[in-house]
Design a protein that fits this description.
Length: about 350
């Protein structure tokens, strides 16, 4: 029996994130406790740490961040039917209830009673984490998929998959423009390439991020210096029409505004990046009406779709590992989250607890 474990903990919003010994988590009756093998360091965790997330405020401090997670089941609640100790599992960050009207309507990503590790409950920057609603939401990882790959799917890649294919409805041969080339944006580019997009345009302020976008398949890159120039260059790259699908993957007012302005008539704009900054975007609603544009929100990913995505990774049709730039310790991961005050790192940073059991990455 274990009575304590190591976790990264903050006691104030924006305050130090320190490694502490905390109580071992209790096993939910409908859930499991997993040994965390890999967990991503995500901009959403930074938002929570900075005090931008109402769920964390409601939960109260101290708090443990982390929601992109994979691991090994070590304890099982009495109501759990489909998992047992030793199972390798991937975790979508939205743990839906299955009972509310949005779940019944087949929209678990907007579950009215959703739970989220790292937001509504203590997260995965820890040696172990408790996860409720296991049978409904957790999925087993194929042996061909590493823990690092599975964790990298947990938020950014799955979020991008839904934004591009399910909400954005990208078709083969269409043009897509992605505004913001962090983890979500680069994932959007990879998925668009795999889907057979005809032209994949990447827009970012960072030349380093744009080089990475080229590496993962972008056919056109645009350095964002001035909004008017960005719009001019996107229109030039699309024969003056705009892109069939645009995505704001960054959440800045400028990326949202540019995405709308660069959408062709009857096209789709997807808002997938979490809003950043005090100024709300100035959406040109006259343009939206005149061009009959669709503006679509996208949030998370359904657990029911996770096995298909895991199989694509197992079959080498998608390689989320290409976006992993750094494998770090728990201590280094806590510092990496705090370093996001200075900007987003290139690609993904993943806390990796045991390289011996996960030799693929």
């Amino acid at each position: 029996e274990r009575f304590s474990m190591k976790a990264a903990v903050y006691h104030s919003f924006g305050g130090p994130i320190c490694i502490e010994h905390v109580s071992f988590p209790q096993t939910p009756t409908d859930g499991v406790v997993i040994q965390v093998m890999a967990t991503g360091v995500c901009r959403s965790d930074w938002h929570a740490w900075k005090g931008h997330d109402d769920d964390v405020k409601e939960h109260g401090l101290p708090f443990v961040p982390g929601h992109e997670v994979s691991g090994i089941v070590v304890r099982v609640g009495e109501q759990v039917m489909h998992f047992e100790p030793g199972d390798r599992v991937a975790v979508p960050f939205i743990l839906s209830c299955g009972c509310c009207h949005t779940c019944i309507d087949g929209r678990p990503t907007v579950c009215l009673n959703q739970q989220q590790p790292g937001f509504t409950m203590l997260g995965s920057f820890a040696e172990y984490v408790a996860l409720p609603r296991a049978d409904r939401n957790l999925r087993k990882i194929p042996l061909q998929v590493s823990f690092v790959e599975a964790a990298s799917l947990g938020c950014r890649f799955t979020t991008a998959y839904r934004a591009v294919l399910q909400q954005g409805r990208l078709k083969r041969g269409e043009t897509i423009a992605v505004f913001g080339c962090g983890g979500v944006g680069l994932s959007c580019i990879m998925i668009a390439v795999a889907q057979g997009a005809g032209n994949v345009i990447a827009v970012d302020v960072s030349d380093q991020a744009l080089r990475k976008a080229r590496e993962v398949g972008a056919t056109c890159t645009i350095t964002a210096v001035d909004n008017r120039d960005v719009r001019k260059q996107v229109m030039s790259a699309t024969n003056g029409e705009g892109a069939d699908l645009t995505l704001d993957a960054a959440g800045f007012p400028s990326t949202c505004e540019n995405a709308v302005w660069c959408t062709r008539g009857s096209g789709r704009m997807v808002q997938v990046g979490l809003p950043i900054g005090d100024r709300p975007p100035l959406v040109p609603m006259g343009l939206v009406a005149a061009r009959e544009l669709e503006i679509i929100g996208s949030h998370g990913f359904s657990a029911d779709d996770l096995p298909d995505l895991l199989q694509l990774v197992a079959d080498k049709e998608l390689d989320p590992g290409r976006l992993v730039e750094r494998l770090v310790s728990l201590e280094e991961g806590a510092q990496a989250l705090q370093d996001m005050d200075n900007g987003s790192p290139l690609g993904m940073t993943v806390i990796h607890f045991d390289t011996k059991q996960d030799s693929k990455l």
